[in-house]
Specification:
The protein contains eight helices and three strands. Helix 7 runs antiparallel to helix 8. The relative contact order is 0.10. The longest helix is centred in the first third of the chain and has 17 residues. By secondary structure, the protein is α+β, with helices and mostly antiparallel strands.
Length: 166
């Protein structure tokens, strides 16, 4: 602490979070937060939107004299991204190794599982209602006296009817 000012320039919260999370990620998953943050540049936007690096599995060394063996990068993918990643595995391995600065990764293991949370997934837009459907819905909720409740139920009904096929 000697020589440091107690009050100085403000530090971004992301820098503080990185300092806290990076050692935890290294210990638990063998992966740095920098790799996770740079995944889009490494894998490309098409693959990065449907995949994410999970962890780096280092091979066990029984003795210190054992030669260095590259690790396995475990990547979570969903759907067709797994097939695309499999075809581009060599290029992704080269980019990850270039990012890390040495030949750390020897192969990629693909785990097929959802990558995006349910909140982040785009919801399909309901189809527009026909005039007959609109009039039936209006008749159904028309007897409700509270305007707010009627409007809410009308929106709910339009969404439910719009998701069904005509």
């Amino acid at each position: 602490m000697a020589g440091k000012k107690p009050f100085g320039n403000p530090v971004p919260v992301s820098d503080l979070a990185t300092e806290i999370l990076d050692p935890v990620l290294r210990k638990r998953a063998g992966i740095s937060i920098g790799l996770v943050q740079s995944w889009e540049e490494i894998a490309g936007p098409r693959l990065a939107s449907h995949s994410r690096p999970e962890k780096i599995q280092w091979p066990r060394r029984l003795h210190e004299d054992d030669p260095f063996e590259p690790a396995v990068l475990i990547v979570a993918c969903e759907g067709m991204a797994a097939l695309h990643l499999q075809h581009e595995a060599g290029e992704v391995i080269n980019r990850v190794n270039a990012f890390l600065g040495f030949n750390a990764i020897g192969r990629i293991k693909i785990l097929q599982k959802p990558v995006l949370s349910a909140q982040a997934r785009p919801k399909p837009a309901p189809r527009p209602l026909s005039e007959a459907e609109k009039s039936k819905l209006a008749r159904t909720v028309g007897k409700i006296e509270d305007d707010g409740l009627r409007a809410s139920l009308e929106r709910l009904g339009a969404t439910i009817i719009g998701q069904k096929r005509p």
